[in-house]
Amino acid sequence: MNELGLLDCIDSRALRVDAFDCFDMVARTGEHPVFVVTGEEGEYLGLVTARAAALFPRRIFADLLFQRPGPLEPHDLPLGDALREMDRRAVDYLAVTSEDGAFAGVISRLSIADALMHREQQQRRELEALLEDYRHELEQKRIAAAVFDSTSEGIMVTDARQRIVQVNPAFERTTGWSREEAVGETPALLHSGVQDPAFYAAMWQSLQQTDAWEGEIWNRRKDGEVYPEWLHINAIRGEDGEIHYFVGVFSDTTRQLELRQRLQYLAYHDALTGLPNRQLFMDRLEQALRDARRDGKGLAVVFVDLDDFKEINDTRGHAAGDELLRNIADALRSAVREVDSVARFGGDEFTLLLPDCDDTDSVSGVVQRVLEGVNREFALAATGEAVRTSASMGIGLFPHDAGTAENLLMAADNALYEAKADQRAGYRFFSASGYDQFVERVRLTSELRRAIAEGGITLDWQPQVELDSGRVVGLEALARWPSADGSFVPPDVFIPLAERSGLIEELGVGVFERAMREVAQLSSEPLSCDFDTLSFAVNVSPLQIHPALDGQPDFAGVLSAIAGSHHVALERIEFELTESALSQSPEELYRVLLRLGVNGARVAVDDFGTGCSNLATIKRLPIHKLKLDRSLVRDLEDDAADREIASAVVGMARAMGLAVLAEGVETREQADILRDLGCDYAQGYLFGRPQPMSALRSTL
């Protein structure tokens, strides 16, 4: 049989995806541990593991390529070299060429192991069939030698009294015993002592009853090394029905055992950092809780979350981000006690299990060492620079805060939320007040979900005017959430709440649907202004923007369909994104906003001047307007620096062919200054407060 090659080990579970696809698009097509990312022409770009894609389910695969593809592995590379190459690269997958040098597929440790096992079984079946075909001629040395010499599996033939009468070269290579030394001995020559006498008694009983036995057995080589082998024994009977020979066929499964152990290790450990993963951490936590209850002791669970890791990962690349995570993992290992456990829970979040900690003082000592180990600079070989990191930590104590693993993790997670809210805190212990805030967030989330479902989110509209003429040129829709007592939940409370809880897409679609319905109603009303010249602005969260899933329309398609259903032309719509949102998923933003722009819609950058704009991104995206933030308008009368900034923004916008609208204009003097600076439009209390369309209609 031909030697097993890489093309025999192609992993059929690998899935080809387009570079602009993302995990959410393919997550329901089956279990795919690795994705083959291809370009527009179908060219191979690299690999992304399912674990990496699941961490950022809406990130396109092009952004998840943690390593650009090197040379594809040749199809004739020996398996051993391929496995060593995986070890050298610290990866579980390699891309392989076909015989003509083109990309053929992906091999993995698991697919190699499966292929080896399949080949082994195939060889064993073929060998057994061959031995059966030639059992009547087994005594003929020429045929026996030919059979023995043609296989890589070890073969040992004994007579009915279990005396070895023949072995093949593979037997000699595997066991270290030569033919001369083995013939005449019994298989006890190889016994390791791992299996007890009862094991061998059951084996020989099976042979007597069924003429066959198969299983894993531990034998000993001549040099004393104990090794595993897969052994298949057949009893060969003569025409008289009596057993004349036993033929044992075996293969050394040391490598397969190592592969199984490696796979088992990866099932319970994070491949990037080598730390225990979530599953192993939960197992250890459950065991630690049982021990603590038995011994009457306490323990602590600590959530560790890196601050601003996404910014480091996005600006310096995934290789630098991965290197930083490995450095953080090493720092955590060094900071904790020997009895403590460190795990990577996912992304940039780590967990600590601290047994025998009965009070805050005993925990604080460990936590303080962790902060000292993490809150420092780390040199990154990937970029040749150093980055400073910091972390926030939340701590839950058993039995003080919770009595179960799930509730203890919830307490630690809630404390982490409090620590993240107070950036100076470093770490927080779970507290009743923090829990009350957590309960309040849960309550608000539930009420927000109900309000969205029942149409409880209303709209106010604020006029936008042209500074030169003073005429109303547009209206901006502002979402409002009235509570049961008649007050309103502020947008800066419920919008972030919707984003964190996954309700933002449903909220955004509901707001846009209501806005288009009210615009359609306004078109039928008698107005003093020209309705056909009005534009209508709607705010958009970057979390709403995603590619199509399972054949459903994407963000642009959904909004286009809603506008069309109310007979509102997209060129009348202006979508507003905050300046900070432009740095999130720029490729997907570009694709979706460009599609909206092609269909006629316009895009404005809201709150301009409050973030760090990437002018190249603004230039690339189909943006037509910058909205000057109210913080730069408030002191225009008295602050020369603000006037200079406003003038610079207007000049930059002019150079880029963009219009400028000033927000928060409250005085005539502010409006005059902005007009003199060249600002095109304005909105604010000077021109009209936000109010429902029913009240605003009479002023238009």
Keywords:
single chain, 700 residues, alpha/beta, CBS-domain, Beta-Lactamase, Alpha-Beta Plaits, 4 domains, 8-stranded mixed beta barrel, 5-stranded antiparallel beta sheet, 26 strands
What would you note in describing this structure?
There is one protein chain. The chain has 700 residues and is α/β, with parallel strands linked by helices. The protein folds into 4 domains: 6-110, CBS-domain; 134-257, PAS domain (Beta-Lactamase, 2-Layer Sandwich), CATH 3.30.450.20; 274-430, Alpha-Beta Plaits, CATH 3.30.70; 442-699, Alpha-Beta Barrel (TIM Barrel). It is built from 24 helices and 26 strands. The strands form 6 sheets. It has an 8-stranded mixed barrel with strand order 18-19-21-22-23-24-25-26, surrounded by 4 helices. A 5-stranded antiparallel sheet has the order 7-6-10-9-8, sandwiched between helices. Helix 5 packs antiparallel against helix 10, helix 13 runs antiparallel to helix 14 and helix 18 packs parallel to helix 19. The longest helix is centred in the first third of the chain and has 25 residues, at 109-133. It starts with 14 loop residues before the first strand and ends with a helix. The mean pLDDT is 84.
Q: Estimate the strand proportion.
A: 15-25%
Shape: elongated
Number of strands: 26
- Calculate the terminal CA-CA distance, rounded to whole Å: 86 Å
- Broad CATH class of the largest domain: Alpha Beta
Helix content: 40-55%
| Regions with little confidence, pLDDT below 50 for 5+ residues | none
Mean pLDDT: 84
Q: Predict the CATH topology of the largest domain.
A: TIM Barrel
CATH architecture of the largest domain: Alpha-Beta Barrel
| Rg, alpha carbons | 35 Å
Order of the strands making up the biggest sheet = 18-19-21-22-23-24-25-26
What do we call the CATH homologous superfamily of the largest domain? EAL domain
Give a quick account of the main beta sheet: strands, pairing sense, barrel closure.
8 strands, mixed, barrel
Structural class by secondary-structure content? alpha/beta
Number of domains: 4
